[in-house]
């Protein structure tokens, strides 16, 4: 069967994009504002710096917070804004060609890769956790899995029939497992702190 060259999304998929994009946008906005305040006043303490582990300030002052030479959340403002626009377009009935979806997927792959690197750096190099960053992680993980699932089920990405069948019913399992693994890593990384 030859896949259609254009596809829209269901209402639920569109809402998921809007919600994930909005959550990432809020996280990026708050981190950007706090970063500006930190640049103005080196003694500024972000509101989410609660203790030695949950310390947004430590994360914001790290080299990893400017991976491309500018604050990471500025990238998030653009990327999550695009996600919201795509979701709103789908809610309005838009239908996009395959190439558009593949470019969107490339952005999601970059996003999940970047977020995974930031998670590793936060847990094992910076040794601190930023709650707003964690919200961006929680937005990116389901975004990646549901967009990938959508493209596989529409046959815009190649996959065997059993994989497509699994994704038809159980896409939700993948982000739940992914978030669970990240949660367990956070729990075990600072187990002594959490239990003291």
Automatic annotation (TrEMBL):
GO terms for molecular function: oxidoreductase activity; quinone binding. Residues 10-151 form the Vitamin K epoxide reductase domain. Gene3D superfamilies: VKOR domain (1.20.1440.130). Keywords: Disulfide bond, Membrane, Oxidoreductase, Quinone, Redox-active center, Transmembrane, Transmembrane helix. It comes from the Bacteria. InterPro entries: VKOR (IPR012932), VKOR_Actinobacteria (IPR041714), VKOR_sf (IPR038354). It holds the Pfam family VKOR. Belongs to the VKOR family. This is Vitamin K epoxide reductase family protein. It comes from Streptomyces ferrugineus. The lineage of its organism: Bacteria, Bacillati, Actinomycetota, Actinomycetes, Kitasatosporales.
């Amino acid at each position: 069967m030859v896949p259609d060259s254009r596809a829209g999304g269901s209402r639920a998929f569109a809402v998921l994009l809007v919600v994930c994009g909005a959550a990432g946008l809020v996280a990026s906005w708050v981190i950007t504002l706090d970063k500006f305040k930190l640049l103005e006043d080196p003694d500024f303490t972000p509101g989410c710096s609660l203790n030695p582990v949950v310390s947004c300030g430590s994360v914001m002052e790290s080299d990893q917070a400017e991976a491309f030479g500018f604050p990471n959340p500025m990238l998030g403002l653009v990327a999550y804004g695009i996600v919201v626009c795509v979701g709103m377009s789908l809610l309005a009935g838009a239908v996009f060609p395959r190439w558009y979806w593949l470019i969107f997927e490339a952005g999601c792959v970059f996003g999940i890769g970047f977020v995974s690197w930031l998670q590793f750096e936060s847990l094992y190099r910076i040794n601190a956790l930023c709650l707003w960053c964690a919200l961006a992680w929680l937005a990116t993980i389901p975004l990646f899995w549901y967009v990938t699932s959508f493209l596989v089920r529409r046959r815009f990405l190649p996959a065997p029939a059993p994989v497509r069948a699994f994704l038809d019913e159980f896409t939700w399992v993948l982000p739940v497992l992914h978030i669970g693994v990240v949660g367990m890593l956070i729990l075990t990384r600072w187990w002594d702190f959490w239990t003291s």
